[in-house]
Amino acid sequence: MSATGLQLDQAPPLSVPLRFFLTAPLFGVLAAVLLFWHGPTGLASRWTPTMLAFTHLLTLGFLTSAMLGALLQMLPVLAGAPVARPRLVSGVVHGLLTTGTLALVTGFLAPGTGAFPVALLLLGPGLALFVGVALECLWRAPIGDSTARTMGIALVGLAITVALGIGLGVGARTGAQSSWTGVHIGWGLLGWVAMLIGGVAWQVVPMFQLTPPYPAWLRRAYAPVLFFTLLGLSAALLLAPGRLAEKFFGAAIAAALALFAGITLLRQRQRRRRLPDVTLAFWRLAMTSLLAAVLLWLAGAAEIVRGERLAFLYGVLFLLGFAASAVHGMLYKIVPFLLWLHLQRKNIRGTLPNMKELLPDRRTRPHLWVHVAAIAAAVLACLVPAPFTYLAAALLLLSFGWLEWNLLAAVRRYRRLIRAHAHVA
Amino acid sequence: MSTLADILTHEHRRCDDLFAQAESAVANGDLETARRDFGEFERSMNRHFDFEEQVLFPAIETAMGPGMGPVQVMRLEHDQMRALFCDMALALAAGDKQRYLGLSETLLILMQQHNMKEEHILYRLAGELLGDREQELLTRLGGQ
Ligand code: HEM
Fold first, then answer.
1. Please, are residues A378 and A55 in contact by the beta-carbon 8 Å criterion?
2. A8 contact residues in B (CB cutoff 8 A)
3. Among A25, A65, A114, A259, fewest CB within 10 Å belongs to which?
């Protein structure tokens, strides 16, 4: 470890992560509107334009945006290595990611309009820039602990996902899904989303709830095991589809995810901080959903349960139940904390609001139940689209809208304080 | 043999325990116990800060050359935490449970990310920079 280049900055400028956090829920809102608009026919198969657009509004628009914002915030703290030129990087990546996601979704919904190539030209460079900058920053970091390593591997997972997505987009999309689609989905959901949430969990679960740390073997093994089994699964999908190898690697991944979810739930039971906490509730929901998704997938693989609509269920449990809940939990801690931190720097005299005064529990607690209801309705819509699609769409709209509203309310409070101070000064 | 990093990390964990005790006493409305636990928490934190600010940080600065950023930010965060202790003590004195819990939530995040930076970065750095002087610092820590 060398001291040169070591910086322990408190935080990057507020706008750097905040722009990602504030636009992410809007993509969830768009996804809900799309579902409402297209209705149950959109859920006829996984490969309808509606489904592909809906999925990417959630994976790129909501999850990836929020996760990039969180990384920009956490890298300096974790690794002691701030991102170079944070404002520029954040502005460019955010601009390319949001416009690129909108173009991709347009491309899915209206093929032949030329939106697809535009999307690839926006998303490719935007995400490549981010992965490059973040990996370089981790590389320079004086410290490489399990979180930093897991984050680095997750960024590689994102790069692989994007490369495969672009490959799929460039290749003629005949409607017949090739094995490459499975590989793209695997890296996106597991190599990027589940990997990063793991790395973040090693830090934030003990930190927010004062739980004992995760076992060292899990922190060390999770990322490499997931990475190499994904490589194995990719090879199996491409070279020997439908054979035993696929199930073998699938089961290994299921075991890794189940261990992660199970140990997180156990750690949370051992927490020393025993107050009710909305982030804790969102994370418990996330881990329970992940366990449910894994068990259901195992049952499906063993052909204990059957049905062509099973894949929808894995998707809802994983994306909305697991990933989106974990992101909600993070946002409800990170955003008020950042606002508080940046208020401290303004040298405002008088009593400043604390985190709970910036974003009170009475705003976030009810949201948990709206979100749970939205997941439940989405599960029902997977099984029986006809009556439940509109209910699911309405609840998703309410839930993502609520998130946006809560975050904006906190930011408005922050801005009002700063303006009031500017008048006095 | 325990290193300086081990001992200081252990102090963080002990302060976390005291923090959680005081917070749950407030949440349960037991302000008598809360005042006692909070007092003990605040004293432990201040003792820890004092050692770092008066002994450890200057030693790091001497070894690294002055004007180095990392230690400066650690001092700033100590001050931010002290300001929160003050507000929490006021809230306790006024019996304002809600305000205390909002402040303690804020302190928790600030304190944990501060500890993380110290444990992951600063203490390890100190271990390498200080070399033989570590023993001397350990004695001073014991003597406090
Ligand atoms: C540059 C970014 C991306 C592009 C261009 C892209 C492109 C595509 C394309 C073309 C398909 C359809 C494949 C086919 O019909 O055979 C697809 C499917 C899919 N992608 Fe992406 N993708 C990108 C990023 C992501 C990310 C980051 C994730 C996850 C985190 C993801 C998750 C999925 C999933 C789950 C499906 C299957 C959808 C379904 O089952 O309805 N994609 N992607």
1. no
2. 69-70, 73-74, 117, 121-122
3. A114
Alpha-carbon torsion angle A291, A292, A298, A303, nearest 10: 170
Burial of A90-121, coded b for 16+ CB within 10 Å and e otherwise, reads bebbbebbbebbbbbbbbbbeeeeebbebbbe
Of A275, A337, A357, the CB nearest to B23: A275
Ligand 1 binding pocket includes A165 (Cβ within 6 Å): yes
Query: How far, in Å, is the centroid of ligand 1 from the Cα of A248?
Result: 24
In angstroms, what is the C-alpha Rg of chain B? Answer: 16
Return the exposure string of A32-44: e unless at least 16 CB atoms fall within 10 Å of the residue's CB, then b. bebbbebeeebbe
**Band of residue A137 on the pLDDT scale cut at 50, 70, 90:** confident
Q: How far apart are CA A252 and CA A244, in angstroms?
A: 12
Which two three-digit tokens encode residue B85? 């202790």
pLDDT at A90: 96
Q: Is the distance from the beta carbon of residue A166 to the nearest atom of ligand 1 less than 6 Å?
A: yes
Query: What mean pLDDT comes out for the span A281-287?
Result: 98
What predicted TM-score, i.e. pTM, was given to this entire model?
Answer: 0.94
For chain A, domain boundaries? 1-144, 172-274, 289-416
Straight-line distance from the first to the last Cα atom of chain A, in angstroms, rounded to the nearest whole number: 45
pLDDT digits (tens, 9 = 90+) for B71-98: 888 888 999 999 999 999 999 999 999 9
- Indicate the residue of A8, A341, A344 with minimum beta-carbon distance to B70: A8
What is the nearest CA distance from B138 to chain A, expressed in angstroms?
A: 22
- pLDDT, mean over chain A: 91
